[in-house]
């Protein structure tokens, strides 16, 4: 997780919520709130990717089994 993105997102979310809960809420409150939520979500999604962009395969081998089509077990006498 990128802690900087999390903190910035929390600040944006807090500022947006404060603006929306005031007597005269502005449109900027919604923008700050949405930007904060997106920034927080990007902080969590970037922690799952292993340096390959937006969560794509990093090319470290097959993930669903043998690449040589090996036998899955079960002996045939």
Number of helices: 2
Spans where pLDDT lies below 50 across 5 or more residues: none
Categorize the overall geometry. rod-shaped
Order of helices and strands: HH
- Write down how many β-strands occur, each being a DSSP E stretch of 2 or more residues: 0
User: How far apart are the first and last residues' alpha carbons, in Å?
Assistant: 52 Å
Q: How does the helix and strand content classify structurally?
A: mainly alpha
Entry keywords:
77 residues, 2 helices, mainly alpha
What does this structure look like?
There is one protein chain. α1 (about 5-20) runs antiparallel to α2 (about 25-50). The chain is rod-shaped, with a radius of gyration of 22 Å. It has about 80 residues and is mainly alpha-helical. Helix content is about 50%, strand content about 0%. It has helices at about 5-20, 25-50.
Brief synopsis:
With 77 residues, the chain is an all-alpha fold. It contains two helices and no strands.
Task: Give the topology.
Layout: H1 3-20, H2 27-48
Helix pairs in contact: 1-2
